[in-house]
Amino acid sequence: MSSPEYYIKSYCLIRDGKVSKNGEILFSDDSEEFPAFIKSAYKHFETDYSKFFKMDNLSKLAFMGAEVLLCENEEQNTALVLSNRASSLDTDRKHQAAISKESGAFASPAVFVYTLPNICMGEISIRHKLYSENSFFIFAEFNPYLLSDYANDLLISGKANEVLCGWVDYDKGKYDAFLYVIAKKGMLPHNTGELTKLYRTK
Predict the structure, then answer these.
(1) Residue among 44, 6, 45, 59 at smallest CA distance from 170
(2) Which of 131, 165, 179, 192 pairs as cysteine with 144 (C-beta 3.0–4.6 A)?
(3) What pTM, to 2 d.p., does this model score?
(4) How confident is the model at residue 1 (pLDDT cuts 50, 70, 90)?
(5) Is residue 106 packed enough to be buried (19+ CB in 10 Å), middle (13-18) or exposed (0-12)?
(6) For 34, which DSSP code?
(7) What's the CATH architecture for 7-199?
(8) What are phi and psi of 198, to 5 degrees?
(9) Sign of CA dihedral 56, 60, 61, 62
(10) CA of 26: how far to CAs of 2, 14, 68, 110, in Å?
């Protein structure tokens, strides 16, 4: 018996000062620094979520990508499968600096809470009321093979009706996000070749 076919329902890229969906640039900004860029994107999409400004940079990046893809999505049984290279290093460094000060080691709860990369999925789940499976993987580079197999297994097993999947990486001011939704119907076939081609889109 052949495995069911799944499709890429929609996809989003956030890099180089641009936010695009399904190949169309929705927002661009000349800000060289990520905090200024992502704040401008937040305002452009008229996002109303005050907790956004308390998030770390990785969570802001993942949150905005999910916002673009899920803002009109009514499917609540959407699993989350994300990955990156740097884990939560950007926030880990801030936490380490705070507790290493000679004047006294005081950990900031607001920083410490983001010292795990999967916290960004919690932010997405709260925003979109998702009570679904979620996993976060660390790879040296974008790995369409594992992500594709894992997403397909979730769909075949019935643990999810759709999967928000992809790569969201932030480290030392550099950011790169490629997120996509996998479903039974969609615009493109869900396979490693298609995912690689979309990820490499400039």
Answers:
(1) 59
(2) 192
(3) 0.91
(4) very low
(5) exposed
(6) H
(7) 3-Layer(aba) Sandwich (3.40)
(8) -65, -40
(9) positive
(10) 38, 10, 9, 31
- Alpha helices (H) in the chain, listed in sequence order: 34-44, 57-70, 89-99, 109-112, 119-128, 144-156, 192-199
pLDDT digits (tens, 9 = 90+) for 39-88: 999 999 999 999 999 999 999 999 999 999 998 888 889 999 999 998 87
- Give the integer Cα–Cα distance in Å for 49 and 189: 33
Q: Which tokens go with 70?
A: 């899920």
Average pLDDT value over all residues in the chain: 90
SS3 at position 165: strand
Please determine, for residue 148, whether its predicted confidence score (pLDDT) is greater than 80. Answer: yes
Tokens of 113: 């809470």
Query: In the chain, what percentage of residues exceed pLDDT 70?
Result: 87
With b meaning 16 or more CB within 10 Å and e meaning fewer, what string describes 42-63? beeeebeeeebeebbbbbbbbb
Segment 24-43 shows an average pLDDT of 97
Mean pLDDT of 83-109: 71
> Where in the chain are the domains?
7-199
Both tokens of 171, joined, read 């480290």
Cβ atoms of 37 and 27 closer than 8 Å: no
Residue 18: which of 131, 138, 178 has the closest Cα? 178
Give the DSSP letter of residue 118. Answer: T
